[in-house]
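Dear H.,

Thanks for agreeing to be a second pair of eyes. The structure we're designing against is below in token form, covering all 324 positions.
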């Protein structure tokens, strides 16, 4: 027969087991995967990862102490993307952070690992989430939602270069690329500019052919390939003396004329906060998708002078940043 004291002691030990298990769960090193489209040596990618690290540190997570980060760079080629996505999911991670390019592959690789995306265009339309308020699956994050800002590119191009009558649009064939193209088509008649699509997969030949006509300018739609090949696009714009408007600030320090689009760094800090909440037990399905809170208008004065453009005072006054 079990003695009463032994029985009570046994109950105490049994009650302690769940507590010990929970403490071990809290204390274990958590694993975070990150899938980046930028090459490892691209300063733009490094700045975003640095912001993500700072956001994690502010939330109490330190690499080497209570988290491990498995980072994959250069996910631009479809085969590389699929490989990186499969590799990350196989690691048994607690959460994955990804730019838009990797989401489709990640969605095919897992429906259970939490995924936080950063700066994805129209995640509802692309099917990544059920709604902005209630994503409903294993994905949530930070989106670029408003295609209307693409019309702003056309307006700025015309203000910067009033003689422009033709705009070559470097675009891709993704859902988001089609949406941006539609917004530009709606704005073009009002501004008096003819739109001419340029295949983003053959940008050198496309720009060379476009530049044969007069009064031309370029618009670069937001896409992964445009960001990765931005130096080539900027060099071609300079070679053919085409004023160009770009979708994000990243292009302008590299010699692009102007950019207008959502601020790119802070969403990575915010993504770290969502990662923190997920690691503490919240579900992506219950974390609403966040829209951009700040758009940036940036001008490169040196490029403007090289093109012989005089920046109107009204345009200059609206710039958030002027690079000299």
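And this is the sequence the design step returned. I haven't edited it by hand at all.
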């Amino acid at each position: 027969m079990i003695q009463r004291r032994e029985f009570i002691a046994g109950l105490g030990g049994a009650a302690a087991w769940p507590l010990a298990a929970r403490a071990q769960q809290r204390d274990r090193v958590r694993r975070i995967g990150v899938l980046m489209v930028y090459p490892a040596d691209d300063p733009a990618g490094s700045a975003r990862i640095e912001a993500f690290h700072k956001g994690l540190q502010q939330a109490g997570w330190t690499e080497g102490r209570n988290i491990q980060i498995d980072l994959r760079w250069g996910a631009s080629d479809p085969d590389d993307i699929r490989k990186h996505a499969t590799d990350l999911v196989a690691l048994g991670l607690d959460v994955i952070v990804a730019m838009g390019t990797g989401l489709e592959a990640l969605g095919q690789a897992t429906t259970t690992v939490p995924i936080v995306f950063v700066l994805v265009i129209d995640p509802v339309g692309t099917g990544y989430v059920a709604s902005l308020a209630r994503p409903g699956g294993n994905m949530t994050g930070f989106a670029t939602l408003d295609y209307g800002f693409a019309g702003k590119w056309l307006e700025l191009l015309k203000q910067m270069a009033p003689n422009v009558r033709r705009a070559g649009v470097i675009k891709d064939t993704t859902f988001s690329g089609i949406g941006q193209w539609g917004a530009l088509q709606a704005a073009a008649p009002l501004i008096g500019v003819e739109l001419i699509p340029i295949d983003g997969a053959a940008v050198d030949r496309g720009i060379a052919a476009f530049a044969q006509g007069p009064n031309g300018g370029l618009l670069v739609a937001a896409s992964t390939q445009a960001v990765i090949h931005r130096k080539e696009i900027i060099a071609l714009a300079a070679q053919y003396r085409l004023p160009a408007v770009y979708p994000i600030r990243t292009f302008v320090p590299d010699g692009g004329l102007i950019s207008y689009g959502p601020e790119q760094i802070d969403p990575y800090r915010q993504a770290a906060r969502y990662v923190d909440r997920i690691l503490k037990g919240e579900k992506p399905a219950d974390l609403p998708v966040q829209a951009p809170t700040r758009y940036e208008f940036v001008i490169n004065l040196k490029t403007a002078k090289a093109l012989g453009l005089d920046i109107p005072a009204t345009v200059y006054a609206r710039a958030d940043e002027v690079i000299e």
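Two observations from my side: The chain has two domains: 8-145+264-293, 149-262+296-323. The mean pLDDT is 89.

Warmly,
E.
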